[in-house]
Structures are given as structure tokens and as C-alpha cells.
Amino acid sequence: MYAMRPPAWVCRACEAQEPKLLSQPYSGRWRIMCQEPCDLEDSEESHPGTLWNVSASGAYVALPEATVEAGRKVRLSFCLPGELTMIQVTARVAWVNPVHEGRHSCGSRATELPPGCGLEFLDLSLMDRTRITARVQGS
User: N or C terminus of the chain: which is more exposed, having fewer CB within 10 Å?
Assistant: First the structure.
């Protein structure tokens, strides 16, 4: 499925950071930063990635190659930091942040993020939404 540590391509400066509260200007939603392993599945294949940040309405997933397309439905599987209970949710790829040509550890659309994609949750269960909201509000 996926490794327990972020892959080597993830920005080394960010690896040691604790989960913390972030605001996202694009969605206006508060979210927590985390670097948890995750799995992103589309109809064709599975993409191991790193859950970079998460809110009750969506997430940013770092991928070594942003091979997913905006608008596509995917299935995301992940655990919140420090938890073992898996969250599985269908999501829509809201935007893609392809690899920056000169700096491979950064995305070209949002250089402060690694390459990957922003996801909008479509069918998050009430229990999982409550768990994520509690983590965001507790940070």
C-alpha cells in the first residue's frame, strides 16, 4: 500500500514538522499540516503519495509525479497523524500542481507545495468529518 515515512522526493525541510493549523487562501478552510502516507486510486491505477494537509472538506496530496487530471474522481485512503483508523473517501481532483521544471521538489503552480493535487471530498462520512474537524480545531 504505502510506506510509513514520507518518500525521499518530499521536501526534507518539511519532514520534521509537527501537525499544525494552516489556513488555505484558495478554499478558505482551516486545515492541519501533516506528512502522512496515503494512497490515491483512480479508475486506472494506484498512486502512493503523502497527505500534505487536510481539512473537513478536502486535502492536498503530494505525488512524485502529478499524473492525475483535474476534475477526475479518485479514492483517497489515509490515517490522521498519530491514528491507526483508516479514512477512505471519494474525492474530486480540484487542481493539479505539476513538477516545477527547475526545482523538482516544488510544484510549478504553487511553489510553496511539493508536486501533487488538491482534492475536494465528495462522500466523507459524518464520523470521519467529525474526527478531522476535531483535529483541526484542536491544533
Answer: N
